Amino acid sequence: MIYIDDFAKIEIKIGTVLNAEEVLGADKLLKLLVDLGEEKPRQILSGIKEWYKPEKLVGKQFVFVTNLEPRVMMGLESNGMIMCADGNPSTGSGQGKPIPLKPSVKVPPGSKIR
Fold first, then answer.
1. Which of 44, 83, 94, 103 could be bridged to 63 by S-S, CB 3.0 to 4.6 A?
2. Under a CB-based contact definition with an 8 Å cutoff, are residues 21 and 55 in contact?
3. How much is the pTM?
């Protein structure tokens, strides 16, 4: 259990994927360039390569956590996290295909989730 004050610290926004590509040498990572309504797009890495082709993500909107501490993976800095649901946990590993969360209608990049 957490307090509402703890939850309120999490910044969740809608972002539009401007570019997506595989990370060279990585089995799981995709590098996303995301418009979050800020001065410049953010680079966000995600371990969804097994399930999604980069070109299928471009132009789509998803939900992102935007105030996480930056993390370096495969020599690249990630400045956020795409939010996904577990699509089918009965695959034996306890985790299924991640399903990125997205708005039901297009909204301005940077719209806050509240």
1. 83
2. no
3. 0.91
